[in-house]
Amino acid sequence: MQKSVKIGAEAFLENHLDLVKGKRVGLITNPTGVNSNQESTIDLFHRNTEIDLVALYGPEHGVSGKAQAGEYVPFYMDEEYDLPVFSLYGQSIKQEADTIQNIDEQMRSFDISRIGKIPEDSMIEDLDVMIFDIQDIGTRIYTYIATMAYCMQTCAENDFDFIVLDRPNPINGLDIEGPILQYPEFSSFVGLYPIPVRHGMTAGELAAFFNDKFFDKKANLTVIPMEGWERHMWYDDTLLPWIAPSPNMLTLHTATVYPGQVFLEGTNISEGRGTPKPFELFGAPWVDASELTKRLNELNLEGMKFKEASFIPSFSKYNGEQCGGGQIHVVDRNRFKPFETTLYIIKTIMDMYPKSFEFFEEYFDKIMGTTKVREAIGMGLDIKDIIKNYDGELLNFSKARKTYLLY
Fold this sequence. Notes:
Layout: H1 8-15, E1 24-29, H2 41-47, E2 52-58, E3 76-78, E4 83-87, H3 103-110, H4 121-124, E5 129-133, H5 144-158, E6 161-165, H6 203-214, E7 220-224, H7 252-261, E8 281-284, H8 289-297, E9 304-311, E10 323-330, H9 338-352, H10 361-368, H11 372-378, H12 383-388, H13 391-401
Parallel strand pairs: 1-2, 1-5, 2-4, 5-6, 6-7
Antiparallel strand pairs: 3-4, 8-10, 9-10
Helix pairs in contact: 5-6, 7-9
């Protein structure tokens, strides 16, 4: 059932401007920072005489949202607003000429480090408060929540205020899946803290959780909650416009399969980057699409079907090469389990092509948050047993998060 939802940005502008009265504001945002009428938060802040907006900050993909995963975003001045735009994704790192050609390798190496992700002193010297207004997608590996956490820590260290304008978890706030990240051994930009792969929380809820549980010095945090959002809701239940959070997160369907398909980034299987259906399509030049989809459909996984697919990526893995594989069709999203589905994809391809399949072990383990899943698949353990091993962890997390749930 669809229901109108008022996002945190709208509630802030209507009722909470006292939080920034007389303060210099830095806004962390991207194209998802819009209201229900698709008006930019940047524009709304800039026009409001009660807000002293002095700088913009962009996460991975930039304030414009156009940069590819792994592509550094440099500093620039926004001519329309006459504001400095600082990148929280490698602005001080020299960009190599062939960045896009080596985008996968660069992403795997850069995303597991802290370098270039934490605001530098020169980027925040004119601030009193930072405001975070970005749509997250409910998966630990997606880097926007790490950017939020790094900025919160910076604000805590410099005695700035930090405000989160809350937005929906687009894949609902009930379902949780996948292992809890082993902390601190596997902490990185693609997974900072011990939460599951699919966490079922909003950015505002996570901010309070991180601040309370993991910060030595607590941030002066304010979360502006939404009005009307309920935990069972998917994004298309909210009547809010879908704005792609990043170049390869094109639709809600993409976000639905992402909590599983993101792990193909840690293998030599294409996750569909460089195609019109990133993360929905998967395969490789050495895969027989017909035989693979036949075997996968015989598993009778809940809430979905596999469709035979052939595709040629325009960039990323197997750029310009014909790939055989499959496409995920979700027919019942409330029964579909993306994490489990992708483990079956990996195991099936591994079994079919043991000489061709490859893990990028360091990166796979970092995004998984543990070595145990890869090792269990390698030992031939049943996927159901691997999944069941995390039931206890997920139950404990479900209990621990209750204190921080706003809805």
